Amino acid sequence: MQDAILGIDVGTSATKAILLDLAGREVAAASQSYPFLTPQPGWVEQDPEAVWQALIRVLRDIVSQSSGYRILSLALAAQAGSIIPAGPDGDPVYPMITWLDTRSQSVTQQWQADGTADTIRRLSGWHPFAGLPLPSIGWLRQHRPDVHAATARFLGVADFLIHRLTGNFATDLSAASEMLLVDVTTGQWSEALCAIGGVDPDMQSEIGWAGRQVGEITAAIATLTGLPAGTPVIAGGNDQPCAGLAMGMTAPGKVMLSTGTAWVLMSVVATPSPEAAPPWVNVYFHAVPHCWLQGQLVGGFGAAVDWWLRQSWQAPDSDGPLDNGRAYEWLNEAVKGSPPGSQGLLFLSLNGPSQVPNAAPGGGFIGLELAHTRADMSRAVLEGCAYEVRWALDELRASGIPVEELWLAGGATRSPAWPQILADVSGVPLVVADYADWAALGGAMLAGWGAHAFSTLEEGIARLQPPVQRVLPNAALSTLYTDRMAAYRRVARAVNEARTAPGRREA
Prior knowledge:
Blueprint lengths: L1 E9 L3 E8 L4 E8 L11 E2 L1 H18 L3 E10 L5 E3 L9 E2 L7 H10 L1 H9 L8 H11 L1 H6 L2 E3 L1 H10 L3 E3 H5 L13 H7 L8 E3 L4 E4 L2 H7 L6 E7 H8 L7 E6 L3 E7 L12 E4 L6 E8 L1 H10 L13 H12 L10 E3 L15 E3 L7 H25 L6 E6 L6 H10 L3 E3 L5 H13 L6 H8 L4 E3 L6 H23 L7
Helix pairs in contact: 2-4, 4-8, 10-15, 11-13, 12-13, 13-14, 13-17, 15-16
């Protein structure tokens, strides 16, 4: 009987699990999806019971594939930013309000106006925006006081599932901190933050660093899943920090760029200091004990490229849009037909410039001429995303955060062209691995460490991390892209000024 460890990624649309032996070889894998519920415009909910049943099915599937292996432990890398109002027994009293939900926009606007947002930022490290738990709780307090009154515990996805698996109410700091109810310096439920939402801190889950044991699989869950009763459940973390852990982000100097529909930039810091961080950056707990992260949304670049390929272009030999596989094949070929700099064409982020406070959404092509080709436009889209990343990296450096290398995960790794453009524009070496689920891998590392299969997290990383390749910047393009970066900033600021102040002339 060989030992194995189980990492589970409870994502926004699906739960995925990987079972690894202690040498990092995949033994089994499983996934199960679940839907969103949109009962009203701007509302994005999920049924907590559907998420729970998906986890049960995934665990059953893993067990059925793992003959000859003993599962030492498991850990959850769960979506953070969603909230489950629950009764004293942990059973939901209302649907899960997800991080995609925008119903609390009026609450966050009110908090911006009266200064509450500044208090939240100072104490939690987070800017309160619609979709995060505390604003959603504030919305319930104002608009559904019956639900708010019936709620004894506001649970994140991780502690909801941990309670179902073990009977204990427990979570980790990286997941709990995104609720905006935890003091980012003390790691405790903040009475001041809880008071803003009308939350009883004494009724919330026990919190601590990731990697500690928070319970065992109960006899009832063993019957449901096939897992042995008593299997240790280890505190995992927020899915993004777990992905960072899997990439070896355990000390300052390493920066991760997660490239999904939205692109998130994360960097490790040794101490939390919201006041010293750039104003648009969030500061929160890492899944690595005694480390924190600075993270920011740099743009919906995955969505921008999807728009470019699927809405504006068709497959050359078809009347329909490109399928997902051919999309990146076509993109890689297209950019080969345009030189670095895209013949002077710029593409501004469709979300607005991420480094400009209160930027208006909207962007597009700047400097488009009749001579420009679809290849120029395609390269300009990729370069425009890269300019936003470089801008964010420059701001990190200015705030005292070193940037030695950039780990790349997600959809952008599917395009050979995009990592090279990112490296050339940013001037930073990229580290890329052909791997599907970094969050689940980070969960597996924590599971192994918590079960004492590894003496340190670093040992777990060394054993389990897949092979990587480095993409080096082309030094010959440094001057070109420095000049283009300066032009991008000027144009982005001018366009944003024109959009936010109608009637003014562009700079």
